[in-house]
Amino acid sequence: MHAFVFPGQGAQFIGMGKDLYDNVPMAKEMFDKADEILGFKITDIMFSGTAEQLKQTKVTQPAIFLHSVILAKAIGEQFKPDMVAGHSLGEFSALVAAGALSFEDGLKLVSKRAQAMQKACEANPSTMAAIIGLDDKIVEDVCASIDGVVVAANYNCPGQLVISGSNEAIDAACAKLTEAGAKRALKLNVGGAFHSPLMEPARVELEAAIKAAPFQKPICPVYQNVDAKPHTDPETIKANLIAQLTAPVRWTQIVRNMLADGATEFTELGPGSVLQGLIKKVNREVVCESKQSI
To answer: Which SS3 state, helix, strand or coil, does residue 141 take?
Structure first.
C-alpha cells in the first residue's frame, strides 16, 4: 500500500515549485490562482525571492502547501494514494490531496492559519527546542516539572522530540534535559510555540473558518496529527484539525500506525526530505522517496 506524506514548516527553499510552474500547464494555472486568492504574488517570493521573505510565517505556510498540493495533483493523475498524512501544516496538504478539501478552501485555511499563528507569536514571545537522544517519557516528565508553559509538541521519531513553550520555560527545560542525559537540546529558529497552549488565540481564530469550510469524505484514510489514527468522517476530521494547533504532532505514532495498517511505500511530496529521514528512523527497511518535482 502506498502512503503520501506531506512536510510542514521549515522545509521551504527559494525556487520551490518553479519547474512545475514552467513545465506543467495545470500547475501554472493553480499557482496563478493562488496569487489571486492570497492577494499577493507568492510565486515571485517562492521562485526568486529572498530567504528572509520566504521565512515569514504568512508566506512559508502557503508556499509549502502550494508546492505539496500542486505536486500531488500532478502525480495523482498517474496514481492515487491508499493513505495520507502530513506533519503539522502538512495535514492541510494531505486533506486536499485526498479530496477532503478543495484546493481553494485549503489555501484559504492555510493562509488564515499562518496569519493567526503569526499574531499569536507576536503577542506571546515563545519558541521551540529539539531534544535528541532521550526517551519520550523523560522529556514529558521534565516538561511537567518546569514552572511555566512547556510541553512536548512534535513526536518526530524515536529519540527526537520537539518541545514548545515560553522562552524562559524552554531555557529551563533545555538545561534540565541536558542534565538528564539529552545528546542535544537545540533551540529552533521558529517564530513561536507551535502546538502548545500558547497557540490558543490562533486556535480560536481558526476554529470558525474550519467549521465554515465545506469538507468532503476523502478518497482514502487521513492519519491525523492529534490522535495518529486514520479518519474519513468529515466532522471528525474537522474537530481534529481544530484541536491540532494546541496539541502535539504524533508523527512517530502516525508512521507506526500506517505501517501496521499495511503501508509498504512512502512518498514525501513537497520541499525537502525531512519526513523521509524521520520515517527511516521509525523503520529502516521501509521503501521511502522524496519528490519535489514530477
So the answer is: helix
State the catalytic residue, choosing from 68, 88, 93, 290. 88
pLDDT score, position 293? 86
> What pLDDT score does 260 carry?
98
d(Cα 252, Cα 263) in Å, to the nearest integer? 14
In terms of Cβ atoms closer than 10 Å to its own Cβ (0-12, 13-18, 19+), residue 95 is buried
pLDDT value of position 21: 96
Q: Please, which residues have CB within 8 angstroms of residue 24's CB and are 6 or more apart in sequence?
A: 74, 294
Angle in degrees, CA 230, 274, 206, rounded to 5: 55
Identify each DSSP E strand in the chain by its residue range.
2-6, 83-86, 126-132, 150-157, 160-166, 184-187, 222-223, 230-231, 265-269, 287-291
Quick one: cell of 275?
519526513
CB atoms within 10 A of CB 63: 30
Long-range contacts of 50-57 (CB under 8 A, 24+ apart): 50/14, 51/14, 54/12, 54/13, 54/14, 55/12, 56/118, 57/9, 57/114, 57/115, 57/117, 57/118, 57/121, 57/191
Determine which one of 195, 196, 231, 290 is catalytic: 195
If we measure between CA atoms, which residue out of 54, 57, 154 comes closest to residue 110? Answer: 57
Identify whether 88 is a catalytic site residue: yes
DSSP class of 271 = S
Query: Taking the CB of residue 194, how many other CB atoms lie within 10 A of it?
Result: 29
pLDDT along the chain (294 residues), means of 10: 94 94 96 97 96 89 97 83 97 97 97 93 91 97 97 97 97 97 92 93 95 97 98 98 97 98 96 95 94 87
Contacts of 22 by beta carbon, 8 Å cutoff, 6+ apart: 28
Q: What's the pLDDT at 77? A: 64
- The answer to whether the Cα torsion of 116, 205, 65, 185 is positive or negative is positive
Burial of residue 287 (CB within 10 Å: 0-12, 13-18, 19+) is exposed
